[in-house]
Amino acid sequence: MRLLLKGAHVIDPASGVDGARDVLIEDGRIALVDVAIPPSETGHTVVVELGPSLVVCPGFIDMHVHLREPGYEHKETVATGAAAAVAGGFTAVACMPNTNPVNDSASVTRFILKQAAEAGLARVYPIGAVSKGSDGKELAEMADMREAGCVAYSDDGRPVATALLMRRALEYAGMLGLPVIDHCEDKTLAGEGVAHEGFNASQLGLRGIPSACEDVMVERDIVLAAMTGSHAHIAHLSTAGALRAVRAAKARGVRVTCEVAPHHFILSDERLLAPLAYDTNLKMNPPLRHAVDRDALVEGLSDGTVDAIATDHAPHHADDKRVEFDRASFGIVGLETAVSLSLDRLVHAGVISLARLVELLSTNPARILRVPGGRLQAGDPADLTILAPELNVTVAAAAFRSKSRNTPFDGWPLRGGVAATVVGGRALFVNPGVPQVAGLGRA
Amino acid sequence: MSDNAARLRGKDLLGIADLTPSEISLILDTAEAMKEVSARPIKKVPALRGKTVINLFYEPSTRTRTSFEVAEKRLSADTLNIAIATSSVVKGETLIDTALNLEAMSPDLIVMRHASSGSCHLLARTCRAGIVNAGDGMHEHPTQGLLDAFTIRERKGRLQGLKVAIVGDMLHSRVFRSNVYLLAKMGAEVWACGPPTLMPAGIEQMGVHATTSVEEAVKDADAVMMLRIQLERMEGGFFPSLREYFQVFGMTPERVRLAKPDAIIMHPGPMNRGVEIASEVADGPASVILDQVANGVAVRMAVLYLLAGGGDDETAA
């Protein structure tokens, strides 16, 4: 079975393609990317005329999501999270281990992968815990989890608790060739904080989480990455100081990478005051930072310091958010808004090119996690994200595939959307608002 | 009076931050009329007759709750008090559920104190009833700010151009925030003093002069206001000892002498004698601490009346 996507703008930074190409898919794999591929005479080929207004990219990979299963299925399951992923343009996600039980063993890893296989939607790459129970004491069985399918290690939700544990984790993960992803937050400095420490939190009487609590932990991790020669990846980087540290570390060759989340490069902490004071959908960790930090992240996206855009998709039930601000759960969903937000606020705003966006959402996440994809290579599974950059969309939380609705972006009009998401040659999401891809749904 | 607002714009009083200067003046002027009621032999007017006011207190409070209750009764409102121990809330119903249950009984006003900043905003968005913030976490305590301003204005005749020193734990204090917002809006010059560990981030942007020198703060002040120091702050490592706190920041007669000769001494209570304030100062001739309590009733009557008493003030006094 052949599928020929014709006439689209193909962007694949890994192979340097950025122009009009056809993409031929055969038996779920990429067969050929070339100018004007003729339909084959032998056998049946479905031809879909995409045209130049659509952009075909290697499938987007969200390297930081919380799928909540096992343990918190009322917030999200692997299946609903994977459905949200494809609806949001992601062909793969990497899920954090802070489930219940924690994904700190091969059996939990295998369970997650079984759920993902049954769902048959986005690819799911489990991230194993650094420490047993993510409690910061003993290393989890990292080699066993890699064998079961883990692609990285993290105690996300919390930092890797001590410098010693981080050292050991980096050394051991280095042996396994996988990165350690750290949620950088010095808990002693963060205390009971619920919002970025600064004038805005002070006005609202909210306990502060200072930027310094991220900065010191990022510096620690950089020092330890340099010491061990292993790869440390900074999760949801949110401060100007942490970004400066990563930039400087990269310049001297330290193996450190970082991701930022759309809410951190779009929103800042004055939003806590207005239009809706104390909106718990603006409560996340790291918190919305100062506008200066937000602007620094935008600069880092533009200058190459930032490696990836990751959503930190953190679904929570409405009950966890319809409470006092300091009692509300941290986090927002991101899978179904990230691509439109990035197109609108980064590409259309003139901050980055489409090619750079593809690097941030596909090429680099694949490289950091050492997973397949991130490029359009003959023989690879046909994981594609097809963008409609000029499509006008309005965020509609009520229509999310995710089980949860906790987003501050509900109702936002945005320019740019996902036309279709193709995983292994199958169109698992086809946007009914984009007529050119209707043929994919029938393919 | 002529530039005063005729009424408050909202159904709620959530914080001073939401009020315009003319709304503040309206409340203070109305409180003057209300104060006269408390001086009568029959201390009652029918302004809120037939109105129901619920006092919902999630934190222990003697002074504020009593003050609201007296104010409500002097306005002839039907009042009921609900005290909810925070410990039972942990397992119990949510704030929104409690609010909806109360709302089903059609109260006109709910006066709430709660340990979480912003809890009154949550309540105000949930309920048709007007919400009066009686202290929410570390955010605001607007009626305290209003009664403090009323007390200063009563003694000094104005707020504009006065130097007011506020000394103590600014970080955790809702009284501090309400006072700062109010005094800044009304043109007073506020000096905020305390250990740097107890100053909120971005304090300069709040429109105050921040200093760690109590002498600098108090010098030539028209009013000196102490904020309560809570013992648990010392245990939290914010300062080394109560003894040292008093040594560096305590309001002693010597320090008071740096202020203007007619300066007034204020404290929102409850006081820690010998921690933030020396007894000689608290009980001295410049102290207006008990006036603050008396004025609290008048200011709360004004707020309740303006929120629930209808448009014009014929029935007020």
**Number of helical stretches of at least 4 residues of chain A:** 14
Terminal Cα span of chain B: 16 Å
The value of Rg of chain B in angstroms is 19 Å
Assembly state = heterodimer
Query: Radius of gyration of chain A from the CA trace?
Result: 21 Å
The major sheet of chain A is characterized as: 8 strands, mixed
In this structure, how is the largest beta sheet of chain B organized? 5 strands, parallel
Give the low-pLDDT segments of chain B: 311-317
Q: Report low-confidence residues of chain A grouped into runs of 5 or more.
A: none
List SSEs of chain B in N-to-C order.
Answer: HEHEHHEHEHEHEEHEHHHEHH
| Rough outline of chain B | globular
Separation, N- and C-terminal Cα atoms of chain A: 9 Å
Q: What is the helical fraction of chain B, as a range of percent?
A: 25-40%
Shape of chain A: globular
Mean pLDDT of chain A: 97
Count of discrete alpha- or pi-helical segments spanning 4 or more residues of chain B = 13
Indicate the structural class of chain A: alpha/beta
Please give the number of β-strands of chain B. 9
The greatest inter-chain interface is formed by:
A-B, 22 and 24 residues
**What fraction of the residues of chain B are assigned to beta strands by DSSP?**
5-15%
Strand content of chain A: 15-25%
Can you describe this structure?
The complex is a heterodimer of chains A (443) and B (317). Chain A is built from 14 helices and 18 strands. Chain A has helices at residues 78-87, 106-119, 142-148, 163-176, 187-190, 199-204, 211-228, 240-251, 262-266, 291-303, 318-321, 338-347, 354-369, 438-442, and strands at residues 2-12, 17-26, 29-34, 45-49, 55-58, 60-65, 90-95, 123-126, 153-154, 180-182, 195-196, 208-209, 232-234, 256-260, 308-309, 384-394, 413-423, 426-430. Chain A is an alpha/beta fold and 443 residues long. Chain A is globular, with a radius of gyration of 21 Å. Chain B contains 13 helices and nine strands. A five-stranded parallel beta sheet of chain B has the order 7-6-5-8-9. In chain B, helix 2 packs across helix 13 (289-308) and helix 6 (142-156) crosses helix 7 (174-185). Mean pLDDT of chain B is 93; it is low at 311-317. The A-B interface holds A 197-208, 210, 277-278, 319, 322-327 and B 17, 94-96, 114, 116-119, 121-122, 136-140, 174, 177, 200-203, 205-206.
